[in-house]
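Reading a protein record of the kind used here takes little practice once its layout is understood. Each number in the token line that follows is a code from a learned vocabulary of backbone shapes. One such record is shown here in full, so that the layout can be seen directly:
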Amino acid sequence: MSVTIMSERDELDEDGGPSTSKRSKFGSAANADCQAVTVRTPQQSTERILASELDERIFTYVSNSNSFSFAKFGFLKLGPLCNASESHSFTEANCHVKTVRNENNLALILEFSQLFSRGVMLLSDVKNNRRELDRQEIAAIKILDNFFKEKDQHEKCLNKGLRGHQSETDKKGFSGTEIAVTLAEHLLGKLAPGKSYVVDEKVKRKGKCRRGYEFCESDPMFGSTGIGHEEGWHGFADIVLSSHDGVPDTISTTHINESQELATLTCSDDDCDDDNECSSSGGKTISDAKLFQSKTSAENRAVAQTIVFSFLQRKRLPEFPNLLIPNILISPQEFRIIMYDAVNDILMCSVPLPIFQSYPSNSLEIASIIILWMVLHHTIFCEGTDALIREMGIERIKKVQADFKERAKEKFELYVNELKYGVQGFPFVQRESLPSFKALLLGVNLLPNMNS
């Protein structure tokens, strides 16, 4: 099945992107009220693309029967300390995630090729010239092909910006914002359906990707990326990536710290049975503790953003058949794919996947490029959770659900119906605090009949 999210019928240019503006519509006033977008299947023209015309690296994993078997997803539950029922910015979010395990304490998993079987099959079909492709598939293949043909240029910028292949002066000058722009400009944005992105306009030190190469002169797009509701989880996505029609399609949470790595997704203390997997903070140095806290904060922020964005898509795309919506949690070294289905309450997280091949290679990891491409085209490549539910049944599927409704409590309907996106700021919400002098002065004595 091929479904296109369309507000108007755009033609494609030679590289598969929109022939008109490539600017995302995320920050426009028309989208600020989170209006529903009609999803319809247009009349598809088909075309046969010969594998010989494409970069052969596209098909690196097609012949392998265990292709992408290393890219596994685990199921996550939200623990009782989850604060989705309160007013918190994403930076304050506590998701209290736990890995879903069986009776033998083994994590329940799915493989990437099971979730994205349509994408894997498309590459196989193209390589073996099995069928003609529809409009969306043609555009997607052209985007991947163009990336590989420009791969050397992107590798130069990514190596210089992310791996420290730069002068001491440049090292001191590159900010977290510029690293985020590098990731968006030379990796995520180039693989996205609309080949466009928006970076949070509230970041510091806006500017071009200044890696010093003549092919690196484009102007980054900054805009309003606010999502959520001030009475619940809310804040600003780091990067928003768009569909062919400029409609917000995927988000990315960047994690930049001194260690430049994500390590493992942090579980709660009572979810850790392996001392090597989760050591107590008592043995950590102050530096280790800060890095651990930074990583945990990034993970909580990413999970909360994933859930909020999925509920936004549920409201905007009520007819869309697959609402397993991804967020790419990315650092300069690696990334994870976090996905949430706001209809069926399924929350998943992948293993960490490397951006680059092992040192001393300067090359991007080909498998990771293809995985990111499929994830960014999830509307046509992801199977969603329907097949999983059919296989497991309603009762069994409850064992792997995230329990978001239980954690959101009375705020659940707010997430379903009242979330905002593309906003520039959120109103301040007064929280409970220590009682004021006036409140206690005018208070009622709990034991009024006792002598003072």
